[in-house]
# Entry
Amino acid sequence: MKFRYLNNVVTLKLDQDKCSGCGLCVEVCPQAVYTLNGKVSLITDRDACLECGACAQNCAPGAITVRPGVGCAFAILMDMFNIKSQCCGDACSCSLDNVQD
Amino acid sequence: MSKKEFNLPMVEDHQPVSCCAGEESAHKYGQASEAGWVVGQIETVAGPVHRIATTLGGRDRLGSIKTRWGLGRMSYTIPPGLYGVGNPDHSSPVLVSANYKLSFDSLRRELSGLDLWVLVLDTKGVNVWCAAGKRTFGTEEVVRMVKATRLPELVSHRLLILPQLSAPGVSAFKVRNRCGFKVIFGPVRAADLPAFLKAGNRAEPAMRRTHFGLLDRLVLTPVELSALAKPLAVFTLFLFLLNLFSLLVSGGPVSPAPLIGQTLSDLFPFLVAMLIGAVFVPALLPYIPGRAFSWKGLLLGLIWAATYRGLFDPAAGWLQTASYFLLIPAIAAFLGMNFTGSSTYTSLSGVVKEMKFALPLIITAAALGLIALVAAYFV
Ligand code: SF4
Ligand code: SF4
# Structure
C-alpha cells in the first residue's frame, strides 16, 4: 500500500535537459517518484515525494532541485517558538534551520 | 579466504588500545570491548577490530524496549569505528551504519553466517534516516571514517554499501571523488541485506520502498505516549483543582475519595482523546478517510465526543457538551498532527500547509473548550 499525503505541495523540480540518465534518482527515492524513460528520468508520481532530498543529493549533473526537510509538525512548532527540538536526540534533523544545505 | 592470507602485513606490536578509528577513539575501543555484543577480535593491518555478535542478548532487548519508551533514548550509542562480522578479509563487503544502538542491532542480527565489515559512523546516536536529514550521516562523515579506520589498507576493493535511507545525506559521487570508494545504496530494511548481497548487490524495487506497516507504526506509539505523561499530569491536576474549587464555592463537604473519583471520571473522555491522537490515528492511519493527519484526528475525536456525550454522559449540560465537542477533537487533531514526524511519507511543504490551516483552528477550539470546561463547573 502506498500512503498518500497532500497533493500539489512539494518543491521538487527536474530539469530533463541536464539529466544524464544515470538512474540514481530512481534508485535512491524511497517513494518511487521517478521512472527512467529510455535515457532520461521522469517524475511520474510527484505527489508521493516527501522532500527527503536523496535524489537531488545524488544527481551529479544537478538536474534535480528540492527544498529538503522533515515533515514533522512538532519540529515545525518548536521552530516557531525557537526551541531546539529534542524528539530524536540531540542531533535531530527535525529542525528547519538544518534543512538548507 | 583464510585469515592468514588476510593478515599479510601484520601489525607487530599490537597493544589492546591501538585502535581502529585513530587516537581519538582509543578510549572508545576499550568501551566497546566490554559490551555484550563484542565476541572477539580480528587482527588487521590497521590494528585489532572487534568482532560483533549477530544475535541479540537480553540486555540488547531490554535496552531496545527502554529506548522505545523514551527512557535514556538520547544516549543509546555505540562507539564509532570499524567492526567485523564472522571472518572478514580484504575482499569482504563493507556495510556502513549509524551509531544508534537500535539501528546497529537491527543490522547485526541479520548478518549471521556472513563475513563482512561494518563501518559505524558517528551519527551522534541518531538513526539513519534522521541522521541523514541532518547530514551527520553524510558525505563528510563517510569520508572521514573511511580515512580514520584506514579502510583503504584493509580492503582491496573500493565499495561501500550504505543503507538506502542514508541517501538524503550522502552524495555517492562526492564520496567517490573524495576517497575513491564507490557508494552503493542497499535495501531500506536490514532484513533484505543477505538477499541483496547474494544477488550481487542488487536490490529488488520492493527493497527500495519504505513500508510503514501496522507494526512499524505501532512501535512508534510508546514514545508518543510517554511524551504525554507531563501534559496529562498537568491536566489531571487542573481538573482536580477545578473540582476542589467548585466544591468550596458551593460549600459542599470536601472529602478526598469522591474528589479523586470525580477528577478521574472527568479526565476519562480527554484521556481517551489523547489515546486517539497518539495510538488510534497511527494504528488506523490508512483506514481513516482524508489526507491531513489533523483531519484524521479531528474525525475520530468528533466520533468519540459524540459517543461519550451520548452513552456516558447523556445528562451533560450545554457547556459540558461544548467542552467535549471542542476539546476532544482539538486534542486528537493536535496529537494526530504530531504523528507526521514519525510517519515516512509526509513532506515538509505538506506539513507546513496542513499546520497553517489546522493550528489556528485547534488553538481556537482548545481555548473555547477550556473556557466551557471551566464554566461548566461553576454554572
Ligand atoms: S540522478 Fe539526475 S542525472 Fe541521474 S537519472 Fe536522475 S535526474 Fe537524471
Ligand atoms: S526528495 Fe526524496 S521522496 Fe522526493 S523525489 Fe527525491 S528521493 Fe524521492
Summary: Confidence is low (pLDDT under 50) at residues 1-30 of chain B. Chain B touches chain A through 56 residues (CB under 8 Å). Residues A 14, 19-25, 41, 59, 61, 63-64 surround iron/sulfur cluster (ligand 1) (CB under 6 Å). The radius of gyration of chain B is 27 Å.
